[in-house]
Amino acid sequence: MATADLSLSSPDIGRELADVADISAAVLAVDLSLVLAVDCSSSVDAGDFKLQMSGIASALRDPSVYQAIAGGPRRQIALALVQWSTTQSQAVTVHWRVLANQIDLEETAREIENATRQSIPGGTGLAAAVDYCASLLRALAVIADRQVIDVSGDGEDNEGGDARAARNRALAQGITINGLPIVYDSTEVLPYYHDQVIGGVGAFLEPASNMITFRDAMLRKLLREIGGPVS
Question: Domain holding 134: CATH number?
Answer without folding.
Answer: 3.40.50.410
